Amino acid sequence: MLDIGYSLSRRFPDPPQTDYRTADVHSLRHDLFCGDVYLADTKADREVSTAWGWVPVLDFAWALCDIVEQLDRDPRGSRSAKSQYAELDFTESSDRMLFERRFGWVEIEADWMAAEEPALTFSHSLLRREARDFLQDLIADLADLHEGLADNPVIWDLQARFPRI
Question: 126 near 133, Cβ under 8 Å?
């Protein structure tokens, strides 16, 4: 089973003067909502997580949804034997999360994982569903915490682009 989660940082709070209703894409993706994220295989009790405190969690959720779609560009879908690759890079460091899809399975590794540690492996359909659920849940949480965020047109577009499955 896949669990995707986050925690917001107290060390990197959003600027108090932020108007979430009119925040632009760049601010929403890179300047606000910093914290840490994780992807966990609850059955195997393993995870890939950050512990830096500065990862923009909305950007992570957005990028993860984009990556899942990028990994699904082969018209043969889960029947494709050809590997498809994507990476999620973290802007403030050289660390990356690496994704490889072959057939209907996606392997997830990170630069900071030990070399002998095996990749997390999930079905592509599970990763798509959980990534979208994570994004929608995150937006709901952030909208509860930050007045005006739910009224931001960028958020409306994001929610429409990646609806729950």
Answer: no
Residue 130's alpha-carbon distances to 51, 63, 80, 124, 150, in angstroms, are: 21, 13, 22, 10, 21
Domain count, the chain: 1
Sheet containing strand 84-89, strands side by side:
84-89, 96-102, 105-110, 120-123
The per-residue pLDDT for range 62-116, each reduced to its tens digit, is 999 999 999 998 877 778 788 999 999 987 788 999 999 999 999 999 999 998 9
**Domain of residue 43, residue span:** 2-161
pTM of the model as a whole: 0.94
Q: Would you state the torsion angle of the CA atoms of residues 158, 105, 54, 152, taken in this order, to the nearest 10 degrees?
A: 10
Helix (H, G, I), strand (E, B) or coil at 55: strand
